[in-house]
Amino acid sequence: MLNFQGETADTVSDISADARKRLDNKTKPPGSLGQIEAVAVQLATVQGSVVPVVDPARIIVFAADHGITAAGVSAYPAEVTAQMMANFASGGAAVCVLGAAAGASLEVIDVGVNADLEQLTGVVHAKVRAGSRNLLEEAAMTHEELDSALQVGREAVVRAVEAGQKCLGLGEMGIGNTTSAAILTGLMCGASATEVTGRGTGLNNSQLSLKQRVVADAMQRHALLADDPLECLRNAGGLEIAALVGAMLEAPAHRLPVLVDGFIVTSAALIACRLKPSVRDVLFFAHQSAETGHALALRQLAAQPLLQLDMRLGEGSATALALPLLRGAAAVLCDMASFADAGVSTAE
Ligand SMILES: Cc1cc2ncn([C@H]3O[C@H](COP(=O)(O)O)[C@@H](O)[C@H]3O)c2cc1C
Ligand SMILES: O=C(O)c1cccnc1
């Protein structure tokens, strides 16, 4: 089996074994750093080095609007997507301040916001179309639009790598996108609409029932596509979700660790991992969102989330909070003394 850039599975497992051995020689009881040790081994394996590097790190926010908002599936009006783009550009959004606090740079990409944002500086303009189509009436994207949105994601990763970035956090902005994420999660996990549909930005009970009906209708409409992840994405996804998939598909070739944010980014991960299983190796899951369906999606991916803070925001906010944990894991492998270095006695 070939992984990464033509390496054999044996080389990959050698690096994992070396990293594991290195950790076991550090001045601590074996395994005592718990999940941080698993993160350290995964980072080493992704980068092909027992001294992994996490910085500089960049958070990328892909943004787009959704035709499905016409069905009343969000507590907020669709205009909020464009308004939040201005907020990202001026540094006022949660991901801006959390990213800055975590020492990560931020790139915000307009993949399909339904507003003319050309005058907005500090945003990457890569609009494929002004919002996806209403997925209850027609496919959310044409084949060409899907290809273009996937390409926007791939190019963002290449740009980050060329700028020397060593780790990425992936986030999104798009009013209505928890509906697309729910449909994709339901189709990829074989779960029911009630299991995957949550309140998103804060729907009340009657709004939630309506959203569940929308998700159930869409899942029924697209059920035959469940074996074709790309067609699921084209029919029920969004332009920013497609860009997220493109970014994930690109990351393994660059040995780039990727922090996955919440429910929406994880729905993209379900698609990307089905399309290319080696994507799973580079993914780190920042948190378990409070949004219904996220726990189920994480289970499907055998993912152990790093944080559980009852967050349900998106934007990449949790990737900023989890980044220091990756840094800590790398520091343990790189900088901690071994028993021999420090003259500490090993277990009897
Ligand atoms: C002010 C504001 C800022 C946000 N930042 C992220 N989201 C989050 O909420 C949206 C998804 O929820 P739904 O499917 O219910 O519309 C996405 O834009 C997501 O990133 C926000 C939502 C709002 C209102
Ligand atoms: O988990 C998420 O990513 C999420 C949940 C609700 C609203 N927006 C994002």
Automatic annotation (TrEMBL):
Its EC number is 2.4.2.21. The active site is at E315 (proton acceptor). It catalyses: 5,6-dimethylbenzimidazole + nicotinate beta-D-ribonucleotide = alpha-ribazole 5'-phosphate + nicotinate + H(+). One of its GO terms (biological process) is cobalamin biosynthetic process. Belongs to the CobT family. Pathway: Nucleoside biosynthesis; alpha-ribazole biosynthesis; alpha-ribazole from 5,6-dimethylbenzimidazole: step 1/2. The gene is cobT_2. The keyword Glycosyltransferase applies. InterPro entries: Nict_dMeBzImd_PRibTrfase, Nict_dMeBzImd_PRibTrfase_bact, Nict_dMeBzImd_PRibTrfase_N, Nict_dMeBzImd_PRibTrfase_sf. Keywords: Cobalamin biosynthesis, Glycosyltransferase, Transferase. It comes from the Bacteria. Catalyzes the synthesis of alpha-ribazole-5'-phosphate from nicotinate mononucleotide (NAMN) and 5,6-dimethylbenzimidazole (DMB). One of its GO terms (molecular function) is nicotinate-nucleotide-dimethylbenzimidazole phosphoribosyltransferase activity. The keyword Transferase applies. CDD domains: DMB-PRT_CobT. Gene3D superfamilies: 1.10.1610.10, 3.40.50.10210. This is Nicotinate-nucleotide--dimethylbenzimidazole phosphoribosyltransferase.
